[in-house]
Backbone:
């Protein structure tokens, strides 16, 4: 029973097979291969329009290279204070953008609102003494496993256009959000005003492949140079492409995400049924945040289940009492119903 | 017949199998897994001492993250003007070091000499108006497929110590150089004064894995932070480690390199035997640079063989006449004797 | 009546004269002149020990070049969220440090506490996913005109040593704090654990000269290179040095600061006497923050007095009611008693 | 007799007086003052069109902030290998641009040619493995005191437009070149295709003021932010503006430059008349490079004259024999005819 993260799981068999299949003969290096070309077309189909797409190995690289096209070195990026870019990437956004400033906002349930961005913008009254407002970044699904509705994304798109900002979506768990909303990739992104997307695959069954997808060609100008000088262009790129091709084929990505979300819902339901456990935030994708008495936590901690305690921060979650602990449980494409039920039984 | 580069080839079967084997169960993410721990020990054995080793996905990342620990942002790095870091990485060294300056030297046959570094150092007479001399980087084997002898590496080590510089070795083709010299990894690196090594595996049979190896612990301090903020820490790191573990097991790396070198020697010998072809530089590892009349080149270009013309630059190679063309031919662990012979026959 | 800032005033006559005196004959450029050498000795005397000192033209350059020696690009700096480095320098710290992260803390009255730093440090539990804690920066006197006591500075010094952090002091208004505490420069800095100081002179009577003072020689290594490549080394440096020499001579700097502080105290006292005005924070140096009804503010705004409204932020100041406005009033070495009294009379 | 550099001299009396005059009353800080506004208009007049102009304290800051608007972090800048930006600024261009690469070309007499740039461009055949060609920078007058003719500048302007590059002019000694060519500022810059100019004043009589002048408004967008975050925006900016206003008034800048050039011509003529001395390059502005036997040099070195030997580099100057030394002599607005004649007499 491993609920530590969705990235502790391995690689989907279909993706493993695709990589093996790609291992024949020679192929042009540095993304000049045919599989890469096919993947580019797949993305056009997925998003129902022409997009510019680039494959990378990590979500941090995807986020930060995407942002580097959207903000100048003296720019400001509005995001949740506990967004991955703000709290988990060791200053990578600052590195890749040449020094841009993250304005970390304190939003409920891992989500920020246009009003928060507007309030923060209202403080930019000192001309060049302030950085220049340049982009908004939202995470879909969020670090707390919550999902922005289409209306909410759309509202950010409108704000971005009104304020001449760019809108970035960190989609490390894009598929989980998509099946949660049951909408199309187009609806959740460019149709709602998203300019660039970090499209995750690793957490949902791939080995190591993420994509940056641009919906505005201007942002994609010279991206090849940015990727290269960041040490992110693989010589044997066909093995990134093979992962992504399989991921996007036969609805693998959607099925995997659906399964993970179902397991999370089952887990959330099971835990909530316990009299002494409540959810810190709603479960909308593949993460469960459960608040429980320390005594209950200790029972779980003594089991062979793997999970992490989670520090409540700001106004993000329901209040965690002094004698309580909040834990995070993440489900994946490989999480089994048996594991979920076994875990729930520990507190039943 | 593909001689375009060693990176157009795929992945060694043993490495592919190791990756598949690694795909069972869950594993701690972000390099906390057991395979990574085992690989760290392997490197200690390979180098006959404790080293600090970090796995990355590209040679550019390995080179530039290594250099970022060796030079300040206002530092100078002495290297060949056509070293990969100087000519092929789109300014990645400048990006990763925060702006250090590469002093590109014009050396014969892809190699620089201590004298060239000393001559360049002699121009650093303007105190803080010059960048601060900080590191030397040599490529083993070089971009022209030549190899520094142990004495030559040692001479750089002595110069580095005398001038308070750090010595970096770009070993994208480390194994090819090693079997060429028939020495130990220790002899070719730390025993000769190398402080940090970019240890390549991708070109020699891996899918996408390189390592930075530090022989001075001080340089390794905080390297985890550097790797993370460069977007180079993989969540499912076990799949990098699995590649490297297989690569270093059962002499796979040495056997692969030996084969590639043998194919290059065979190719060099065969081509040299043609009356109108001569080598631009000696063939000492797995690259052949052949100068030939345009007419001969055209015959080759019309075949199904893949290769690239190579611009002579500086004083690097033998002079290429106006009616001549120099081509580069790279052999790999998968290059076959048949392919070599078929190519030679084209000009026979 | 100009209370907009201490930097709207001109240059002290004694400093102007010193600059004119320096304008004779030729002098070695780039800080090789004799006046610069004399200033270096002056600083040793001021701080009662050997220090390393470098002259610069702006406080932003002083702060950020100092910090660049104290933190790695992947480091974290703890400071007040409204410290100048965090809120007024357009990302200069990120630029000069190569991307370090400012952890803006919400402290009362412009000051942070060791406890706040410790609480923030407690969140650094994710190893390399977090930036590396590297430095604390405190502002003396603070952006709200308050002053850290010697005990308070000492407590930061102890925390810094205990946690292996560096301690930086932004002393843009160093002299104002010094005369407020009536202590020695040594006591307020290195004796209390400060590693590097931005020593301001411009706001207190100079034209454009600030200094970085290092109390740890290690931090000063290569600082000449840092200053040069930041475009901060003046060819005719003697004219910076002449300003500083005069500033530090005949107690000019202390007398000027004392005057400014006295004017602020007089202003604070006069305003507080008005029944509808109260101070947002205590007046301890040369800044007054006064909260008043909008109607009262409008009377002042219609006068020829120049001043700025100030947004209350976080828990920094006393609460500003909906019908109230807080204004900032800054006094300088040239502020006259008449101006203060005239301003007070406007609300009398 | 000080010929070490034009920056060893002090400040023109008219500029000193202007600074003293500016020291009355209060003025809006951070370039919001009236003198700054007047200077902006002066520049429009000088260049016979609307320009965007920003005042800075050093030539390095002017060059590098200008370049930061013209090239992306992954860009390449073509310049002379011994241009100030390449050889004398300790990596400042790399710092300010976020890592752009200088392609140092080896041109005769301190000047490069469009052909050299084209030849270098011809090597950019590796797509994103190369940096992106972005700008050309020429120095007027050059580090060897030579001057590009209007036709030569125009040829660079045409090349820049044809290749989609930006053209930067380092005019640290702009006035010296201008009076040498006897043309208008407009002719020497935007009419010939220059996009941005570093306009020097310090070497020619100011204390510490340089300007960046943009002839393309697009480049000036957000320049206030760039200047601020580089620590280059002075709070008491009126004292920079006062220098520049006086410099541009009453033809002071032209008269000063004319004098310096005349002194250099006199010096060059006098030295050339000696049988054992010849010029390393033509004297076209205010610098003289004289090659002489070591014995002659020793006579000069024993006098009280101050000057520097100059290393011949690349193909820049006439060949310096083994028994010879080349020295650099720089004249300024304050160099006297007596000093020149006395120096010449030393070798007479």
Residues:
């Amino acid at each position: 029973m491993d609920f530590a993260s969705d990235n502790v799981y391995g690689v989907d068999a279909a993706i493993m097979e695709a990589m093996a299949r790609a291992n024949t003969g020679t192929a042009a290096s540095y993304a000049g291969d045919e599989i890469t070309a096919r993947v580019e077309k797949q993305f056009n189909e997925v998003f129902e329009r022409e997009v510019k797409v680039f494959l990378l190995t990590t979500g941090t690289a995807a986020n930060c290279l995407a942002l580097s096209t959207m903000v100048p070195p003296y720019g400001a990026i509005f995001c949740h204070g506990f967004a991955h870019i703000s709290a988990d990437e060791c200053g990578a956004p600052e590195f890749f953008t040449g020094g841009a400033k993250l304005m970390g906002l304190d939003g409920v349930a891992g989500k920020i609102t246009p009003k928060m961005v507007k309030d923060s913008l209202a403080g930019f009254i000192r001309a060049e003494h302030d950085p220049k407002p340049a982009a908004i970044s939202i995470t879909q699904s969020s670090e707390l496993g919550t999902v922005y509705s289409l209306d909410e994304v759309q509202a950010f798109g409108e704000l971005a256009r009104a304020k001449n900002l760019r809108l970035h979506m960190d989609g490390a768990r894009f598929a989980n959000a998509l099946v949660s909303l049951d909408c199309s990739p187009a609806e959740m992104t460019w149709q709602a005003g998203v300019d660039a997307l970090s499209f995750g695959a690793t957490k949902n069954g791939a080995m190591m492949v993420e994509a940056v997808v641009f919906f505005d060609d201007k942002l994609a100008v010279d991206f090849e140079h940015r990727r290269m000088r960041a040490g992110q262009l693989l010589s044997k790129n066909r093995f990134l492409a093979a992962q992504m091709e399989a991921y996007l084929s036969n609805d693998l990505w959607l099925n995997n995400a659906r399964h993970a979300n179902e397991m999370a819902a089952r887990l959330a339901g099971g835990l909530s049924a316990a009299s002494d456990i409540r959810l810190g935030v709603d479960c909308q994708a593949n993460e469960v945040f459960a608040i429980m008495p320390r005594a209950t936590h200790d029972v779980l901690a003594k089991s062979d289940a793997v999970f992490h305690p989670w520090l409540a921060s700001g106004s993000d979650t329901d209040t965690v009492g002094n004698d309580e602990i909040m834990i995070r449980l993440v489900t994946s494409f490989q999480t089994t119903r048996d594991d979920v039920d076994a875990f729930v039984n520990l507190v039943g």
